[in-house]
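Page 47, continued from p. 46.
Same chain as before, 600 aa.
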Amino acid sequence: MTAVRARQAARALVCRMETAFASLAAIILAVMLAAVTIGVVLRYGFQTGVVGMEDLGIWLNIALISAGLPLTFTGTLSMRLDLLTGRLKGWQVRTSALAADMVSLLAGLVLFIGGIRAAGMVGGVSQTLGLPEWVRFALPALGGAGLVIVLIVARFSEGRLPDALLSLALACGLYWAAGRFAVDTGFPPSLPLALVIAFGLITGAPLAHAFLAASCIAIPFGAVQTEQAIIANAVAGMSRFLLLAIPFFLLAGACLALSGAATKLVRFAAALVGHLRGGLAQTTLLTSVLFSGASGSSVANAAFAASTFHPELVKNGYPPARAGAIVAASSLLDNIIPPSIAFLILATAADLSVGALLMGGLFAGLVIAAFLATAIWWVCGKESRGIAATGAERRSAGLAALPAFGLGLIVVFGIRFGIVTATEAAAMAALYALFLTFLARRPLGASIKAFRQSASEAAAIGLLIGAAAPIAFTLAIDDIAGLLSQATRMLGGSAIAVLLIANLILLAAGLVLDIGAAILLLGPILLPVAVAAGIDPTRFGVILVVNLMIGGLTPPVGMLVFVVSGVTGVSASSLFWAMRPFLIALLAALGLLCLFAILL
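Result:
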């Protein structure tokens, strides 16, 4: 009885810790939003500014990621590959869980111990903020310690403390060995790096944790990075002002749905296309086109559309699997049509113009929407249609949806015409969506929940960006880009050869990697090869994102499919099978975009 009570107390403690970390991250997000807003007001209203405002935003973003770091081993954005672990039974489940926890705990140790050592080696003071530079490295160290503590307490609450302690012992042993031994295999460090990442994915460890663990394990195999360098590279990867746009866009999408403006977009879409063949499915697609101007996150749109449209689609005669496939395929557009978090990540990784990428994404998104609409028309001929709306009904629905369109205009035109930066546009979008929530008189608790959710999701994405930086460094040292260049020269080195090889690599990567991780790892490698072949970097960047987004719909990872499966209860395998006609349409759209990149 005492053991049961102890586990119940531990479970309650885990909930309190998770709430505390999420609340802290939400507070930091609110401060970030206030700081960027003040900067915008001062710059455009008074033609002045505050020295260090950009650096303050960067430091706050690192603090947000660190605060949300203990939450990254749970939730959808932990980015676990559950397809294989879900088929295990008995002792296999326990062994896999033990190994996955070992990977996460090793990542926590890398952040904690490596962060402390890196902080101890860094001197000087920030010239703009007046704060010691070591603080930036101490923040991830605190987050790593929180990750270890929360994971151990969580496993105790589940009655798995012995397994957790064994995982911790193994993680400590690996961490100790990585810094004291050298192994000469004759292979570049990228190979053991990839094997450790694969091991982490197979066992179901969060992807960002697998990246950090792999960077540590690669040290004895010749990787030119110490544990301090791993942390330094990770912090450098997080230290970009552009990355502040990610939590702001996530917050804007959450508040838009909370305000009810998203529902008005649905009604407007239904008034336009609800009467066509496959009308409700076409409404789902058009809503994704319209809603993409708000959230910038395909995961957010997949969750929203799965809860909003899937029940209605099934009620109107659509088979559950096909309805889910329509929802998942349509949600892909949110990371292509601006604003797009994927393009923000690519711009950060490859130093490309955000405005040019967003405009290219707008064109690509419309092309993809046309191909998906054709596929829906072809596949959904037997399902019931809606009643055609009158002109007055369409005008009324359009007027009601205008506030939601305002958010997209702020982002697209603000960035494209150089009025504001991408981060400032995202902050203005978040403020605008918050204002709509205020006008809708939503409860304060709901808005606080939106801040917590957005901050937690942003922390998971930010950790992935930081964890990928040491991986990208090792791949660059091993000259993976040079190997790809040689492969394309063997095929003639033409633009067609480069696109062929690049698309095959990206499609393969999309099968097992999250889009953010794939962009961070492959973008800097493939982009120079494409530019050398005469391909416009912006057009290639659009092709890269579209290709990897298709990976969100393919097994075994298929994050969008798993999100829809989790919300609707339809099995992922059924959704993957029903996705075939839409995948064909998406690949055809990708081929057309490649043709444009070569000919135009």
